[in-house]
From TrEMBL:
Residues 35-167 form the Ferritin/DPS domain. Pfam families: Ferritin. This is Ferritin/DPS domain-containing protein. It comes from Acetobacter orientalis. InterPro entries: DPS_DNA-bd (IPR002177), Ferritin-like (IPR012347), Ferritin-like_SF (IPR009078), Ferritin_DPS_dom (IPR008331). Belongs to the Dps family. Gene3D superfamilies: 1.20.1260.10. GO terms for molecular function: ferric iron binding. PANTHER family: DNA PROTECTION DURING STARVATION PROTEIN (PTHR42932:SF3), GENERAL STRESS PROTEIN 20U (PTHR42932).
Length: 179
């Protein structure tokens, strides 16, 4: 692809969607991409968490069902602030479900049945992956001196680590044993 269409696209976005900011345009571009990639992971994790919430079964049904409902609500609460942060600094964000599927690193699970233990372990690992993605975008923001986005991400890292902790504790086979 030649550079001219990319320059024209960037000029069009700046003219119609650009928001004034003191951040460098290259930093806005990189941060907006990082936020959109993170948002794709957040949407995918939300749907997977709801899927497992809806299909939970077994003797700990009530506890796990409520845990996943609480976690899915927390995950969904990240979506609008993530997208709006990209727009506040003059970037763009996701446009479609197709874009979410192309950008996410969270794998779907369409199995007809997943054991409760496997559901929780998979979500634990997915939350760990989201933490890693959030830290990567945080580093971009810190380098660009985008303190507002950094601050939001710090809170989301804390929330994601808490979800990971709860899922980890719920999947331990023996009290006191770490696997």
């Amino acid at each position: 692809m030649s550079k001219a269409p990319l320059d024209a696209k960037a000029a069009h976005i700046k003219e119609y969607l650009g928001t004034p900011t003191d951040l460098k345009s290259a930093d806005v571009h990189d941060i907006a991409i990082g936020l959109a990639d993170t948002l794709a992971d957040v949407f995918a994790l939300y749907i997977k968490t709801k899927n497992f919430h809806w299909h939970m079964s077994g003797r700990h049904f009530r506890d796990y069902h409520l845990l996943l409902d609480e976690q899915s609500n927390q995950i969904f609460a990240m979506t609008d602030p993530l997208a709006e942060r990209a727009r506040k600094i003059g970037g763009t964000t996701l446009h479609s479900v197709g874009e979410i599927s192309r950008r996410t690193q969270i794998a779907d699970n369409d199995a007809l049945y997943v054991t409760p233990e496997d559901m929780l372990a998979e979500l634990r690992d997915d939350n760990l992956a989201l933490t890693k993605r959030l830290r990567k975008v945080h580093a971009l923001c810190a380098e660009a001196n985008d303190v507002a986005t950094s601050s939001l991400i710090e809170n989301w890292i804390d929330e994601t680590e808490r979800r990971t902790w709860f899922l980890f504790e719920s999947t331990r086979p023996v009290f006191g044993k770490n696997d």
